[in-house]
Amino acid sequence: MKLCRSDCLLVVIGVVTLCAYLPAQAAKTIRLRLLDGRTGRIITDAGILVGANHDSTPHGEWVKSNEDGTTTITLPQSATVLQVHATYEDATQYYVNCDGPPVLDTPAELWYSVSDVMTKGLVAADGCVKPKELEKLDITAKPGELVIFVRKVSWHDRGKVLLK
What we know:
Layout: H1 5-21, E1 28-36, E2 47-52, E3 63-65, E4 71-75, E5 81-88, E6 93-94, E7 96-97, E8 112-113, H2 114-120, E9 122-123, H3 131-137, E10 145-151, H4 155-163
């Protein structure tokens, strides 16, 4: 049996049509706002390190800086939890996340639910300011947005480590 051009063309069209209907593994995109824990101002010059699913391996390829100071994080579809750390001074120092313990030499293991971020948005706790000051900041998050408060390591933090 000999195939003609029209038969081959129909096969190619059929394959292309079938591929178009297969479910694609869409990535999850999250908008990150990294804010100074004391002032609420956006931090634009930080290095962002992202991990997913309790794997702390940093993935810089998932991170893209935006002109407005926010960061776009593109996670694989399989991601259920997300970890974000920020660095300063040419990536030699980690910011302290204000929603966790002040760990200085390595960042704290804080994981955020991707589902919560995607469906309703998430503003992490800000333990770097008093509650009344936090109310004045009036920070909210939209669905797909994660807001994290950070601060630089202080001399007081360093002193605590030396005394141990």
